[in-house]
Amino acid sequence: MDKTSGTTEVPAAQATPIIPLPQAAARALTVAGSALALAGTFLAWTWTEEFPGNLTVTGYPGGLQVLTLFGSLLTLLFALTGYGIRGLGWLTPGGKNSPVLLAALGVFGTTGYAIGAIAQELGGLVNLEPGAWVSGIGALLAVIGALGLPVDQPYDAADPTPHLWGRIRHSLTAPDPGRAKDLPSWAEILIIAAGFGTGLYVFSYGIGTEYSEQFIGFLIVAAFGFTAVNRAGLLKRLSALTAKHRNVTLGAAFAAAICFPFTQSNDQFALIGANILIFATVALGLNVVVGLAGLLDLGYVAFLGVGAYAAALVSGSPASTLGVHFPFWAAVLTGAAASLIFGVVIGAPTLRLRGDYLAIVTLGFGEIFRITMNNLNGNSGPDVTNGSNGIPQIPDLEVFGFNLGVPHDVLGHELTRSANYYLLMLVFTAIVVTVFRRSAESRIGRAWVAIREDETAATAMGINGFRLKLLAFALGASLAGLAGTVQAHVSYSVTPEQYQFAGSVPPNSAFLLAAVILGGMGTISGPLIGAALLYLIPAKLQFMAEYQLLLFGIALMLLMRFRPEGLVADRRKQLEFHETGQLDLPEDKPLPDGATGVAKAGA
């Protein structure tokens, strides 16, 4: 009984495992199953090389076998921490058993998908070799054992007896890790570098997958593995270090990004990386408008198009009606300035609107831009953009005598055209990240957040809402135009159909807005991660092009249900979307016996 409030605190109910097994037997079964799944990867999974990845070799895993190997090894390490083995305790500073279950589910999903794909493509389970069965049975045993491990957290007192689905979801939760011991600065910097090095390896492996079956398996392992590492508390420990060493973190991130083209031998994969940076930079510019200022812009891709068309017209293309050839820096400034002007012209009469009305107006602007570019063909209007034919044959950029259109040898590695543009776009991304970071931390950035949370209250406190919203609109437009200048040269041509509200091929406004929401509004890394995922997945799964919009919508619904704050959320969004146990208003507690109250102020 709480004597001050007169209420009785209900103790949290002890959670029970999904499968009632003795703890020692469950852990032993998990370890044995993981080891069995790992051993099966060194055996042949099929007898023919018709299935991609050459799974016929014994003693040398390949293709989907490698994914099962890494997933099994991660599951095995997490499971062994439960035995208190010295040197492994740092792997699970948060949850102890939920990471084991998540990693085991990832192995089971990948192995099961591989078995199903082999049977479907080759004509039945008869085409499986013993290695596939060994890994499949081992993965199943590991999941059964992990379901028998104790749950990391007790049930909520408000729901002490949840149903089966609730119990399964609860078994995947974990407590936050405690505060880590202070380490020397050099050790913390090495940990940050190792974290970004691991991220570079995982991203390079995913973008370098050569066939769709391997990429789907990679997505399964990466999704469950990332969640398992997060539940183990490792990501939160790393986040604490990156917050402590912010400048070192930014340097390590860009150093890892610079190393990416040196890890790729296929020019196609470097081109995917360059396009990801282009769209991630545009998404970060939209994050200024949507994430900081709270303005819903559904026609943002038009500013990318303005920058691209402006650069194409002044870059010396034979199809350009202006017939001028600006140097690189002048073309970039022209594209950014043109988008800035359009942002001010469109924003000035429309930003007095709010909410859905502003969204409808910006959507109309995006469509007006596309139609106008179509009509400036010499028939329906002046001959400026060549109409639907666009502006082709845009020459490659030349930066300080360095022609980006031809390969160059750097440190014994040949940088292709796509790699050259990737590195150039990386410089622009660094500029945009710096602008976003400085803006968000400034007085103007705090005013944007105030307008986003409550414009009426912000105006009452003396903030000029219209002027600041126009500033956010103009800044976001200029950042999009900056990326558009590079996008025009990377794609060789610009056409009106590239800049739609929605479509199966990015860029489009819906894609950019979803990248911001998926990654996390108001953050730096969120839109970068969201844009990378939304561009990489369609590029790798081209056989699903007809269903991309359907899958896109399903993914957004699942995200809104289970992770409404985005993949990378700031503290404000986490408090807004999740229960913290903190009351919105203080409890109305009675005064203690003998205390006197005050009848009115000043008495």
TrEMBL record:
It is found in: Cell membrane. GO terms for molecular function: branched-chain amino acid transmembrane transporter activity. Residues 580-603 are annotated as: Disordered. GO terms for cellular component: plasma membrane. Residues 580-591 have a biased composition (Basic and acidic residues). Coiled coil: none annotated. Pfam families: BPD_transp_2. It is a multi-pass membrane protein. This is Branched-chain amino acid ABC transporter permease.
